[in-house]
Specification:
Layout (H helix, E strand, L loop, with lengths): L2 E10 L4 E10 L2 E7 H4 L8 E4 L3 E5 L1 E6 L12 H10 L2 E6 L10 H14 L3 E4 L15 H7 L14 H13 L3 E4 L12 E2 L2 H5 L4 E2 L2 H17 L2 E4 L5 H12 L4 E5 L1 H5 L21 H12 L5 E2 L8 H4 L16 H10 L6 H8 L1 H6 L15 E5 L4 E2 L18 E2 L2 E7 L2 E5 L1
Helix pairs in contact: 5-7, 7-8, 8-10
């Protein structure tokens, strides 16, 4: 017995419109996509039926930058809670960063994450491996063994690789294996003691600011190293105008550089921060309005390739320590699509297809993944979204253990209502 998803509104590629279609799911794959106007409603007898009337039917969202915290920080998040939060946000595939404890720098830890994801997770989890042992920047990990164990790329996310020689060696090795190096770009000498960007909010409150150059210096350095080594180099959570400019320049010269941006850096600037609230503290920090416009323009012109959440849960106790002592990071799974749909698609700045592509097909294409597209024969990773119901962001309702968000109370449209992974419904409202 298969499953018919009937009466759904499916995007028509390249035409910026939705058509009523019916999808048959069998053996975990999309077996048929039936056009209602041309073929009419299907005979659903003998099949399970999901009526998607009034709902968008999209390929499942893909998030290539998340923190699941397990092993080591289970009080913040676990693979079980994190994947449920992801499913509620419409995500079917997520890639988890290696800054756990222990860090993901050995085969045993990769196996631990994959085994946990298999037994306790409900969406597909792809682990990254560390570039350097213990993320200390002193010695490369065993790239070959980590690749064989199943990592999808190499990163020391959470810290920048400070040594240019170490990063060049990593890139050369990754290039020889056709693997990607994913970089958290941060020069430590420029950020120590900072909690917010070097802008209006920091100056007004007498705080040391984190300058844009702290990010952009590593971006520029690494683009040159990527040119020298031929590696696919991917820049994490771009936030600064200078970084956008450098990535654009690198692409113009044919260097294999790609990049990502988070919803919060597209929607908020340091001038929006209401006070000394650590739920507004993230790394990289919220930049100036000029930087916000630069990253939006970078996404729109293709300089920035994909949208990620950088989902980074922390406990309420940690975030209550004050802005200097609290950790960086906010949660993102359950608000990402509604935020971007409401603020960019409903306002007419972006098409729905533009947003969906950067959350589905483009991340799949960038990392060579076989998901992210609604096609017959593909795995049935699907997200149903209610585009018309307005709801307020309520952290108390999150499935994540993390409640750390600056978006509390925002009234949004575009809430996922059902998520399916390989033909199995893993979350339903």
């Amino acid at each position: 017995m298969g499953t018919w998803i009937i009466n759904g509104s499916v995007p028509v590629r390249g035409q910026n419109r939705l058509e009523k279609k019916h999808l048959l799911i069998e053996d975990g794959k999309i077996a048929a996509i039936r056009d209602d106007a041309a073929e009419g409603a299907p005979d659903t007898s003998g099949h399970e039926t999901i009526d998607a009337a009034g709902k968008l039917v999209s390929a499942g969202f893909i998030d290539m930058h998340v923190h699941l915290r397990e092993p080591g920080f289970e009080y913040k998040e676990t693979i079980a809670t994190g994947t449920r939060s992801a499913a509620r946000g419409g995500y079917t595939t997520i890639a988890c960063m290696p800054n756990t404890r222990p860090v993901i720098d050995k085969v045993e830890t990769v196996n631990y994450v994959l085994d946990k994801a298999e037994t306790e997770g409900i969406v597909r989890v792809l682990p990254y491996g560390c570039i350097t042992k213990n993320q200390l920047g002193r010695e490369l990990t065993d790239f070959s063994a980590l690749k064989e164990a199943g990592v999808v790329g190499f990163t020391d996310d959470g810290v920048g690789v400070q040594s240019a020689q170490m990063m060049k060696d990593a890139m050369a090795l990754a290039a020889s294996m056709n693997m990607t190096v994913i970089a958290h770009c941060e020069d430590n000498t420029l950020v120590e003691g900072g909690a917010f960007t070097d802008g209006e909010f920091a100056r007004k409150n007498g705080l040391k600011g984190i300058p844009n150059e702290s990010e952009a210096i590593h971006v520029g350095r690494d683009i040159l190293l990527a040119e020298a080594t031929g590696v696919h180099y991917h820049v994490c959570h771009v936030s600064a105008e200078q970084s956008v400019r450098l990535i654009r320049h690198g692409k113009q010269f044919g260097i294999k550089v790609t990049s990502e941006v988070c919803p919060h850096h597209l929607l908020l600037s340091d001038e929006d921060i209401p006070g000394m609230d650590a739920n507004w503290k993230m790394n990289p920090p919220l930049r100036t309005p000029k930087d916000v416009e630069a990253v939006i323009a970078g996404l729109e012109d293709g300089t920035i390739d994909i949208i990620v959440t950088d989902h980074a849960p922390h406990s309420e106790e940690e975030k209550a320590r004050g802005v200097q002592m609290a950790p960086f990071g906010i949660v993102g799974f359950e608000t990402a699509f509604p935020l971007l749909y409401t603020k960019f698609v409903r306002t007419g700045r972006w098409t729905l297809e533009f947003l969906l592509d950067r959350m589905t097909s483009k991340p799949a294409e960038l990392f060579g993944l076989p998901w992210g597209v609604l096609e017959v024969g593909r795995e049935a990773d699907l997200t149903l979204v209610d585009l018309e119901t307005e709801k307020a962001v309520d952290p108390a309702q999150f499935l994540s253990k993390g409640r750390n968000t600056p978006f509390t109370g925002w009234k949004l449209f575009g809430w996922p209502s059902l998520t399916m992974v390989a033909g199995k419904t893993v979350w339903s409202e």
